[in-house]
Amino acid sequence: MNTIIKVIDRLFTKLEINNLGSSHKYRAACLIIEDALRKGSIIPGVTTVIEKTGGNFGFGLIAACHPYGIPVELVVGLGFSQAKRDLLECVGAQLIGKHLLLSGVSPKDVVSVHLENQVQLGKSYYYTDQFNNPIGIDAHRYQTASELACQLIDAGVGNKLLFVGCAGTGASFTGITLGLKEYGFDVSTVLVEPFGCDSKEGLFTDHRFEGMAVGVSPPFLDWSLVDRRSQVEHTEMLTAQGWFHQLTGIYIGYTAAACVSVAQRLISLPEYADTTCITIAYDAGFWYQN
Question: Carries keyword Disulfide bond (predicted)?
């Protein structure tokens, strides 16, 4: 199990950066691949996995596919970190469609072009389609949340929790919240977004918080589970990232640091005086270019 650490009194972080692929996305990637293998949708030696991803889900797919010898082709939007793009290729993925992306074609449409022309390309693709694949919710509901609940019980925390998280697909936010509630915790939640973004209303601005407010309303986010929302400036996130590193020696990524920034604000409020705050270290910060 990926451990939780006590950052300060009543603030805990679960280190999902310790997963294979170095992020929480490995859980969904692994479950999706295992499900497709079981159903025969993926045949090792025949099938190539294809996905559009900003990085973390791609690393998860590479780790999940490698034991079966399944090649992975990824469409990575040009706005994402070049460091991530380079590393994805270094660890085994083939990045495809760059010329189409440069001409203005969206990552989704690049995938569609490849799927439509797979026979001519000599491919047999399986599209994991993380934004339309609900298996991701199960990965976090029955794995992440289950581990986290047991770890919190072992740590002796009280019943009242404040989960501060973010949403790309919304699968982790929804799955973790549902899972913790099913373990009997009294869970309140906060959805963190970059300053100027409102995912519910479909309002997005340019930002550097890869993995949240990704340009579409999170398809798997159950909005009835969101108790409050909070926005974070880039400079606030950087301050929280440095603070977390000084206390723990762990250099978390931008989305994780944004959630820590909000947790810092809220934990001192009187309404949360008897509440334990939980954040997720979704990934590490080394490949984010400031």
Answer: no
Question: Which pLDDT value is given to residue 24?
Answer: 96
> 127-144: string of b/e by CB count within 10 Å (b at 16+)?
bbebbebebbbbbbbbbb
Distance CA 262, CA 240 (A): 9
Look at residue 108 in the predicted model and tell me its pLDDT: 93
**How many Cβ atoms from other residues are within 10 Å of residue 105's Cβ?**
15
Cβ atoms 140, 172 nearer than 8 A: yes
Distance between CA atoms of residues 182 and 191, nearest Å: 20
pLDDT given at position 290:
57
Q: Which of 122-126, 202-206, 274-278 has the lowest mean pLDDT?
A: 202-206
Scored b (16 or more CB within 10 A) or e, 215-245 reads eebbbbbeeebbeebbbbeeebbbebbebbe
**What are 252-261's pLDDT values in tens digits?**
999 999 999 9
Q: Residue 278 CB: number of other CB atoms within 10 A?
A: 27
* Interval 220-238: pLDDT, tens: 999 999 999 999 999 999 9
Angstrom distance (rounded) from CA 44 to CA 264: 46
Contacts of 166 (CB under 8 A, 6+ apart): 173, 191, 192, 193, 209, 211, 212, 213, 255, 258, 259, 282
Q: What is the pTM of this model?
A: 0.95
